[in-house]
Every structure is written in C-alpha cells, then in structure tokens.
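Data availability (excerpt). All sequences and predicted token strings are deposited with the supplementary files. A representative entry, TNF receptor-associated factor 6-B, is shown inline so that the format can be inspected without opening the archive.
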Amino acid sequence: MSYYSSTSTEQATFPSGGSSYPSSLSETMEGYEYDFVPPPEPRYECPICLLILREPRQTKCGHRFCRDCILRALRDSSARCPVDNEGLTEADLFPDNFAKREILNFDIRCPNNKDGCEKILPLGKLQLHLGECPLALTPCPNKCASIVPRRDMADHVENHCDLRAISCANCCANVKATDMLDHMNVCPKAH
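Structure token line:
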C-alpha cells in the first residue's frame, strides 16, 4: 500500500462545510465542487466560478455570487456587477442566509466516494463526517510528512512511519526508525 506525503495542509485540505474562510488574504474560496445528489438547480450556481454558491452574497440588483468571487470581481473590475454591469460596491452586498441554509441542506456524496465511501449526507454535515470517515486522509500523529487514510493510520504508525519508536533488540532503547542504523553503530550491546 502506498502512502501520500504532503508538506502542506488544506484546512487539512478539505473544503469546509460552511463557515470557514481562507487562511490568508491572497487565498480565495470559490464555490462548492462536490457530487451533489441530485444536482442543484442552476440558480444556486455562482455566475463567476460556475460552482455551487459558497457563503452566498446577493447584490442590490438581485444577483447571487460566492462571497469571495464577488469581492474579487469588485476589486478587479470597475465596481460593476459581473452579470448586468450595474454599478456595485461592497456595501451593496448582503449575506443571503436563506440560500446558504438551503445549500447546506443539499445532499452530497462523500468526497472519498472514489475510494469506496458510499455515504450521502447534507453538505452542512460534511466536516463532521470527514472527522469520522475511515477513508479521509489524515496527517500522521508523529508529525512525519505522511498523510494516510484514517483506517490505515494504526498500521502506518506501527509499521511504516519513519518517526515511530523502535526498541533496539540489543539494549532495549527506544530509537526512531530513521535513526536505528546510526544507533546500531554506537549501541553499547551491539558488539
């Protein structure tokens, strides 16, 4: 079995189910790109990113956009609505909590369905499910660079992690797996 390695995390690299925002100003979050069951009506799509609205904002001219998509569009354009070109500022945007509630109740397939998870759940419950899904990728608790499916973590920590503690057969000292060869050169009972 192969294990994945990573040097960065994406909210442990999973899109959030609603209320979290990018960790930096330069990072933006477009709409939701999940396998919705059934697919939502087109009115729930952002006209900018063409995905399902994330943190929907409605304009004074009645159009809906993802929060980050419309803010980026207003900064990059001449303060105009991308749909009808009407003058628009950030003050002309307001949260569309009704649409947000509806979207968070839409059913999706678990993002790990390609790996075998057959769970279908409301979008708003995704983070809770990912915290339990046996196929969700999780970082190694030993803080090695590996990210493995939750169901394989015990095997990884016990048998594959470079930072796992191994007991020296000669002196019984606990040594990191990566340091065992060096330890054998200095082990007082190895010779």
